[in-house]
Amino acid sequence: MEGFFGNCFNMILLMLCFTNLSIAFAHSHMNGFGEQPLAKIAIHKTVLALHSSASIIAVPFVLGTKGEDTQWVTVELESPIPSVDDWVGVFSPANFNSATCPDTDGIGWVEEPYICTAPIKYKYANYSNRNYAKTGKAILKFQLINQRADFSFALFSGGLSDPRLVAISNSISFANPKAPVYPRLALGKSWDEMTVTWTSGYDINEAVPFVEWGPKGGKKTRSHAGTLTFNRNSMCGEPARTVGWRDPGFIHTSFLKELWPNFRYTYKLGHMLSNGSYVWSKKYSFKASPYPGQNSLQRVIIFGDMGKAERDGSNEYADYQPGSLNTTDQLVKDLENYDIVFHIGDMPYANGYISQWDQFTAQVQEISSTVPYMIASGNHERDWPNTGSFYDTPDSGGECGVPAETMYYFPAENRAKFWYKADYGLFRFCIADSEHDWREGSEQYKFIEHCLATVDRKHQPWLIFSAHRPLGYSSNLWYGMEGSFEEPMGRESLQKLWQKYKVDIGFYGHVHNYERVCPIYQVCIYDS
Question: What is the percentage of the chain residues whose pLDDT exceeds 70?
Answer without folding.
Answer: 89
